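USER: Write out one fold?

ASSISTANT:
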Amino acid sequence: GAAVKRAIQKASPSPRRQFILIRWAQKAAGALVGVATAAFLMFYQWVVEPAPPHSLRVKAFAALTQGVLRGAMLTFFASASDFTRRLTSVEANAKFARLDAGPEEDWEATPADFRAVVTHIKEKFGIRYVYCWHGLPAYWGGVMPGTPSMTGVTGSSLVYPKPTASIAEVEPSLMWSPAVLAGVGVADNPGALYSAMHAYLAAAAVDGVKVDCQAGVGLVGSALGGGPAAARQFQAALEDSIAAHFPGNHAINCMCHSSENFYRFSRTAVARVSDDYYPRDPASSTPHIGACAFNSLYMGALVQPDWDMFQSAHPAGVLHGMARAVSGGAVYVSDKPGQHDFDLLRRLVLPDGAVLRALLPGRPTRDCLFADVLRDRQTLLKVKRGGRVGPAAGVTQSHCVTLSPRRCSYAATLRAPVTQLLGVTQLRCMLL
C-alpha cells in the first residue's frame, strides 16, 4: 500500500505545477472566449447590421436570439450595460451613505444618508436645484418582481414586449433588444410607485427628476393591450406625483418622441428633443445639433425643448455652446471635474449665473427648412429664436456627416467634414 501511495504522489503534479497548468488553462479559455466574441461582433457588424429589415439575415438572427443565442445575448447585456437591471428599492443604497462612499461599501450593512449628501452639495457649491434620474418604468428593466423592499409599494409582473412591424422596420435591432429578450418588470400600480420614489427624494432635499426611457413604455404596452393605453396610464401617474412632490413642475421628460408619450404631457413642460450627447463620437456633434433644431420645429409647439447637456472642454464645445445659446432652452454641461472651458461658459451666462432665455425656442429658418443641411454641401443651418423685442440667430456650416440607420452610428461622408461656426447674432431677448 505504501508503494502504491508513493507512486501516486510521484505521478501527481506538484502544487506549483498545478497552479501553472490552471493558469494556462484559464488563459487559453479566455483567449478562446475573446476570439469567439470578436468573431461574433464582426459577424454582427458586417452581416446583420447592414442587412435590410425584411431580409433573411435579419429574420434568421432574430430567430436565433429567441433560441440558441438568447442565453449568450442576456449574458452580454448583463455584463456590458444596465439595460437588464431592475429597481429593487425606492431608497438610495450605501454608495450615498456619505460623500466619499463608493462601490466597495457594504450595501446591506451601511445605512444611506442621502439627504446629508444632497444638502452638503448644495451648501458647499451653492447649488440651488438637484435633480435625480429615473425611468418611466422606474429603471431600464422596470421593477424587480417579488422584491421584499417593494412590498407595500407596488407589485410587478414580467412582460416580454414585441416591437410593432413599423418600429422593427426602422430599427430591426429592437427585435433582440434587452427589453424583448430579458423582459420588463411592469409596476401594477405606477401611481404608488412614483409617489414612493418622489416622496423619498423630496424628503432628501431633491428638487426634481429627469424621467428617461419613456417611449419604452409604449413598447411594453404591446404585451399589455396597447402602447397608447400604457403610456396614458404611466404618464398621468407620473405627472400627478410630480405635482404633489415637486412644486414648480421640476421635471424633464426624456427619450419621449413617441406621439403616445408627448401627446400625454398635460402639465410637465420640458422635454429633450434629441438623441444622447456622445462626446466620444466626433461625428455625432453636428447631427445632434441639426436634430435638435429640426425637432424643435414640431416639439416646440408642445414643450420647452431641451437640447441636452454637453462638455465645455470638448473639441466641439464651442459649437455646442453656440447651439445652446440660440436653443431657447436650458444650458447645462456634463464636464468632468477639473475639465472646463470657463471662457466659453462665461459667454453663455450673465455674471450672476442667469441665462438669457427667449420667448420661443430655436428653430430652423424658412430658407433651410427643407434642405439637407448635413449632406448637401451647400446649405447653412440657420437657427432663429424669438424674443420679446427682437430675435437671436445662429449660423453654422456642418456638412458631410450622417446617421447610418442600419449601423445605428454617425459617419462622415468625407474624410474631413466641414464643420464651421459662422457666427451668432444676438439682438434682444427676455431675461427669465
The CA atoms of residues 8 and 197 lie 64 Å apart. Residues 414-432 have pLDDT under 50 and may be disordered.
